[in-house]
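Hi R.,

Here's the chain you asked about this morning:
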Amino acid sequence: MNTETIDTGPVLEGALNVAEFYRGATVLVTGGTGFIGKVLVEKLLRCFEVKKIFLLIRRKANVSATDRLQQMLEGPIFDTIRSTAPDAKERFAKVVAMDAAFDREDIVDDVDKTKLCNEVQIVFHVMASIRFNEVLDEAIAINVTSAQRLYALASSMAELRSIVHVSTFYANCNRPYIEERIYDDVPYGGLEHIQLFFKSLSVEEKERMTRVVLGDMPNSYVFSKKCAEAMVGREFGHLPIGIFRPPIVISSYREPEPGWVDCFHGATGLCVPVVLGKTMWYYGKPEVKPFMSPVDHTVSGMLAAACDIYRRQCTILPVEKPVPVYNFTFEKNRFAYGDMVELVCSGLPNVLDRWLSRIKCRISPWKIFPQMLLWLMTLQARIADEILAWFGKRGSNVKIVSAITTLSNAVEYFRCHMWTMDNSNVKRMLSLLSRDDAKRLDFDGEQIDWRDYHKSYAKGIAMELMRKNDRRKSSMAANRA
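And the predicted structure, written out as tokens:
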């Protein structure tokens, strides 16, 4: 590892100078084609003078890493760069795709490994499986073993300055109060014992034992993220690494454009019926105030955290240093689930739609009403699909209701629980930003005007629904041809 100190704070001793930290740097990103990853790549290209960005991309449905990168760069998220940067072509040329296979010990081939070890200074590990119902050993393989193999590779990087391991605030959601530290209390003797035990089980036994091992954790996603944090602390504490814990990540606030989103996981997915004018009631506690963060705020926090991790390595005395943890959550300025429908409705263009949606969509503290409504909606969807079938058309009403129900059930736990936390490291980062970096990296969650934010939220969802529909039509037309 390169221990040469670069200037990260010329204004005040100990202050961050994030722009200088990224100037001429080569960055490695996993999960770069995902929701957070795309915003991260776009922000690096638009706001920082990086030298190169390596993206580790898995081959998907026989589409190569290079082709997947090209498809990503043609997306609307990069329109701002295309329309405002005279050197847009040169900026896009900085992004280099590498074929990666995280199911192998060596995740890249020898040629790419040599490039990474000789050139990379900053690593963002964003890749993760966010399927909540994954069998535990599969979730561990993606969320823990992949990170393990990446950091083993990073140990050989000659000029490594910083690694940001992106976790989730809910990795320790079985605790009411969450501190900025690693909780290494993985049950059943630890991660290795769990992996060894699951190797000898059948598929059916794995499904049954997953529930047993999870205990009071709601799903395999958060449990595997907890295991990954413990693994980082035990095996890679000698590296310049930090753990970044975002909460529920939602559509952008301002960058690259207000309301931008390209997936419907979590809270955003549950708001789709509001935008479509459908009826949907969800079980939960209306008074619960969730931690939420716009994706552009989240990415800005990650970029600052990478610089802060490096600053810690250079300024703290050379004794054993704990892995820094960043709870990217803000206690003040939160809104309750009971207010969420009204906020989302405020962005609907039609006055009547805004009024009706507040009746059609609710967070109910009584489980019986959402269940009764679901039964009626499922019946209605089946009838609608049958009628379409009589006319030789294929209906998807049951599929849509099923998808929303599955998502609602998966995140029900988070609509019924509330947490407190410590975010001292994040607040300290904010205080250390230079004036220019504070403008470039706007991530103070306490300053978000949620009514202003939701003016673009519904529109962003509607735009992505249109894009998905256009892609579906193009795919069907291509298949017919």
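The first strand starts at residue 26 and ends at 30.

Let me know if you need anything else.
M.
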